Amino acid sequence: MISLTDATLMRGDLVLLQQASLSIHHGQKIGLVGRNGSGKSSLFACLLGQLALDQGELSMPEGTRCAHMRQETQASDASAVEFVVDGDTGFRRIERALADAEAAGDGARIAHWHSEMDKIGGYDIRNRAMQLLSGLGFRSDQFELPVSGFSGGWRIRLNLAAALMAPSDLLLLDEPTNHLDLEATLWLEQWLKRYQGTLLIISHDRSFLDNVVDYVVSVEQQKLTLYRGNYSSFETQRAERLAQEQAMFEKQQRRVAQIEDFVRRFRAKATKARQAQSRLKELDRMQLIAPAHIDSPFYFEFPVPERLPAELVALEKVDIGYAEPLLQKVRLNVRDSTRIALLGFNGEGKSTLLRCIAGELAPLAGELRRSRYLQVGYFAQHQVDVLDLAASPMLLLQRLDPAAREQALRDFLGGFDFHGDRVNEAIGNFSGGEKARLALALVVWQKPNLLLLDEPTNHLDLEMRHALTVALQGYEGALIIVSHDRHLLANTVDEFYCVHQGRCVEFEGDLHDYERWMQEQSRNATGTAAGTAESRKADKKEQRQQAAALRQQMAPLRNEIRKLEQQLDALHTELANLEQALTDPGLYEDSRKKELTDLLQKQAASKARSDDVEAQWLEKSEFLESLG
Asked: pTM of the predicted model, to two decimals?
């Protein structure tokens, strides 16, 4: 059992926890929730021994193996698969000891470390690392790419894979789904459900928490409060408690009334029985848990669009892409009441479709009509990245609307939790979550009649996600959204369209049906790969049997080893040259796509030959040493 007793924790002069107590039992899966800055990550640092309590006691069973997900990754020449293997420090320790024993020619130590390697399953560790990478969305041709060749979001995925690779009794994950698409999130859910140790997760994805955790620890008023059940159960329990506080009653009733109004409007126009039934259950629940969010610092709503024509955008047999079409013959009629979620695997073209509708990308073929009164509010991650870091929130809004009164702008920014001097502070000092909130605020202020949202919840905490969900429910314009936040989708859209294999077609069913479809697609895609892995294992076993028959052939064996070493040297040089070529940033531009493909194919072929030669060399070298 892990226990905190009368714990006080401070960051500078800020008190995060004061006389807080908590008991965590082996095997519990716990979601850690609380406002940004409440001390969640600092509590993780305490459990990892990186930060000491100011007062109180933290006790943990001796020998507890802790694994955690790092938030930063430095550029490295190590391949993705070797970076993940590094997560198992026990394997690396045995690997080094074995290499030292082999260098010393110590047969007894060689045998000992081979035995230790076998105990920890070290001989198939790279296969396990590849399975983790595959589950988290990496393609097989990326396994050998250097870490330095990946963007920040993909490096975070590598950190997650390394944490999952580490043998652990306590696993600490801080925002593990932030850079994952829905497919990878579903895979991670299943992996964590099978995890045998104690799990603590900080996450702003409520559906993910609902599917993984069985307890919630809430950081409230410098205390740690344990709730039994998943996140939805926590909300209900907290809502019941807060609803009893008379001071909050009026504010609670206003929020409930907003949601009731949206439920009535949706019920009046719902036409698809399956989706409507699922949707109404979600909306009724939103009404039930509204009091749990009464003390949220976020309060905003989308203003009524100045004009709302019946037809906003129409696509007729439109091809969309860059040099080549990514989507073909797209038909989509966006009307004033349209509320669509775009579903589909990563890279299929969802974001590209939004860019085309937004007017940032011209169609390659077909007809695209826009209303003369169209006012698009487009939120995408690149808009967060190109914010003027020297400007302030106030200045950005004044650029959009020079005639607006300063007090009106201050009141508006307050709804996004920008108060006092923060409204005039340089954006360069803001966190990723604050920048995302500000980018959303800029979209809201422009009174769009068509909202295009591409992963709007990235970097947003649970309270801000809830506020956005409620605001979208009250929005009176058209909405098209791409998001892996299932709770947001379930509560804000009427229809689902699936972008898959170059087509965009309506998906008949709800999100649960889509999850089953997605998992079926993944199984079909990975069945062949699984068979290949089994085939490789069989080949390994056969190689060992053949090598055993060579024990009496010392001289020919030495000759074979020398030849294999020469082949390995040549292959390693070839691979190094290919990997150096792949570090060229310009190679990943669309205009050099063919060149990139050719290099990746050559790299995969060289790596396959290298692995085969290295496997032979290892087998023959081991047997030669055992004979000597």
From this structure: 0.62
